[in-house]
Design brief:
Elements lengths: L2 E6 L6 E7 L8 E5 L5 E5 L11 E4 L4 E6 L1 E8 L3 H13 L5 E3 L2 E5 L2 H9 L3 E8 L40
Parallel strand pairs: 1-4, 2-6
Antiparallel strand pairs: 1-5, 3-4, 5-6, 7-9, 7-10, 8-9
Length: about 170
C-alpha cells in the first residue's frame, strides 16, 4: 500500500488527490486514508501530527495529497463584551477543550452540557457546521486533548464538568 510519510505546510509538488479529515483524524499518526479521487494510502508517521487545513501529505512516490478540514458540529460562543468572553474562555480552557479563537468569539466542538454551562455564564451559543481549526497547545502543538497526559485524566465527554486549580503549574 502507498504510504504517506510526512506532513508539509509549505508544499510544492503534484497534488494527486484531496482528503477531507475531521479534527481528530488530522491528529492521527497511523491511519488508512481514502482520497476523494480514489487514492488510498497509509498515513505512517513517527509522531502524532498537527495537520491543518491546506497542508499536504507527502507520499512515498513524491506526490502530494491535499488536506481539507471536514465540516463538524461546532458551537460559536459570543458574549456581551471582551471581559465576559475572556471569563467564558477561562471556563472552556479549564475543561481542557480545544478552542478556535476569532475576533469577538470562540468555537468549540458541540456539546450540550458545555452549551448549558456557557449559557449559564451569560454567553450566547450558536450551533454551526464548519471546519474546526483550534489553537495549538502551549506544550506540544495542536493536539486533541482527549487522552492527553499530564498526570491526570480529563476525558469529560458529556458526563460532567469541573472547576479545579492545577497546583503543578504545568497546565
Amino acid at each position: 500500500m502507498l504510504r504517506g510519510l510526512s506532513v508539509v505546510s509549505d508544499w510544492a509538488g503534484d497534488i494527486v488527490d484531496t482528503v477531507v479529515l475531521n479534527y481528530e483524524d488530522r491528529h492521527r499518526r497511523r491511519i488508512t486514508l481514502h482520497g476523494e479521487g480514489g487514492t488510498r494510502f497509509l498515513l505512517d508517521l513517527s509522531a502524532v501530527p498537527s495537520i491543518r487545513d491546506g497542508d499536504a501529505i507527502a507520499l512515498a512516490d513524491d506526490k502530494m495529497v491535499l488536506v481539507r478540514a471536514a465540516p463538524e458540529a461546532l458551537m460559536t460562543i459570543t458574549a456581551e463584551n471582551p471581559v465576559h468572553l475572556a471569563r467564558i474562555a477561562w471556563h472552556v480552557g479549564n475543561r481542557h477543550l480545544a478552542a478556535e479563537i476569532f475576533e469577538g468569539g470562540l468555537r468549540i466542538r458541540s456539546d450540550h452540557v458545555i452549551a448549558k454551562m456557557i449559557e449559564g455564564l451569560g454567553g450566547k451559543v450558536t450551533e454551526i457546521l464548519a471546519p474546526f481549526n483550534p489553537e495549538g497547545g502551549a506544550y506540544g502543538g495542536n493536539v486533541p486533548l482527549q487522552g492527553h497526559s499530564h498526570g491526570h485524566d480529563h476525558s469529560h465527554g458529556e458526563t460532567h464538568a469541573h472547576d479545579h486549580v492545577h497546583e503543578t503549574g504545568q497546565d
